Amino acid sequence: MEQNKKFKLVSSKRTRYILPNILTLGGVCLGISSIKFSIDGNFNLAVILILFAAILDALDGRIARLIKGTSEFGKELDSLTDFVSFGIAPVFILYFWELNNYGKLGWAIALIYSVCCVLRLARFNLTKTENNQEWKDNFFEGIPSPAGGILILMPLIYELSDLNFKFNAKGITPYLTILIALLLVSKVPTLSFKKISISSKTTIFLLLAAGMIFTALLFYTFETLLAFAFIYLTSIPISFFIFKKEQKKNSLKISDEDHEDIL
After folding, report:
1. 43 phi, psi to nearest 5 deg
2. Of the candidates 100, 129, 114, 249, which has an alpha carbon nearest to the alpha carbon of residue 185?
3. Which residue, of 25, 28, 134, 138, has the greatest Cβ tally within 10 A?
């Protein structure tokens, strides 16, 4: 008798690759949808969709590594998604909100940001870490595109929040966009938080902090986003000093190993 064969969309060995790619595709849908809502003038929802796209971007890679579902296809798909969701969508939101008032200059600023973002992603895909420099995996070269996409939206986020510091956020929009564009293609080291060891004793506090953050985002969405954006900006100099410290420590370690080999 012939055994019944069950229909399978993909082989059992490949099913683990589907979930990360679904999350990645969800991110690109959110990014494109945010452009549509910004055209309609619904900037609140446009910014929130960018936030959700950033959350999905943070999850897809980690889930892929966790379930051993990483692939070259997923890597390329992730880069293309990042360009759409964080290289095009945020600056389009800014353009429809404020940059269009600058005419051709505003469009040029939008193009500069998008070009810097795609250059940053291309460099990231070509970056290879040597075996004796695995410590560099804890750092990005320049700020990552999801962070850049949220940082350039800071003036808009401020306008959408209930904060009232009598500050003209619109006036700094073009300058901030250019600054973040330069940071994208810069070689300034920023923390990646890819390899963080968490002890079992601190797990409960981590879960508590995560719950508080989600609660703050739920009730004070734009104020919380603005606070995290400022915290991230202030962490860049700290990241630089940590990078230099690790670089010096690794150089001394390599020097000692070479000295032992000679002896």
Report:
1. -75, -25
2. 114
3. 28
Question: What domains does the chain contain, in order, with CATH numbers?
Answer: 18-125+139-246 (1.20.120)
**φ, ψ dihedrals at 68, nearest 5°:** 55, 45
Q: Where are the beta strands (DSSP E) in the chain?
A: 139-141, 189-191
Tokens of 104: 């051709």
Contact 83, 117 (CB under 8 A): yes
CA distance 183 to 190: 10
Is the pLDDT reported for residue 234 higher than 80? Answer: yes
Could you tell me which residues come within 8 angstroms of residue 89 by beta carbon, excluding any fewer than 6 positions away?
31, 32, 34, 35, 50, 53, 149
Cα distance between residue 170 and residue 156, in whole Å: 8
> CA-to-CA distance for 178 and 113, rounded, in angstroms?
7
Q: Is 2 exposed, middle or buried (0-12, 13-18, 19+ CB in 10 A)?
A: exposed
Render pLDDT for 173-211 as a digit per residue (tens, 0 to 9): 999 999 999 999 999 999 887 666 666 777 788 889 889
Structure tokens at 130: 């040597």
Q: Is this prediction's pTM over 0.70?
A: yes
Least confident of 2-11, 117-126, 169-178, 198-207: 2-11
How many other C-beta atoms lie within 10 A of the C-beta of residue 189?
Answer: 22
**In contact, 50 and 34? CB cutoff 8 Å:** yes
What does the alpha-carbon distance between residue 176 and residue 113 come to, in Å, rounded to a whole number? 10
CB 151 within 8 A of CB 233: yes
Does 227 score more than 50 pLDDT?
yes
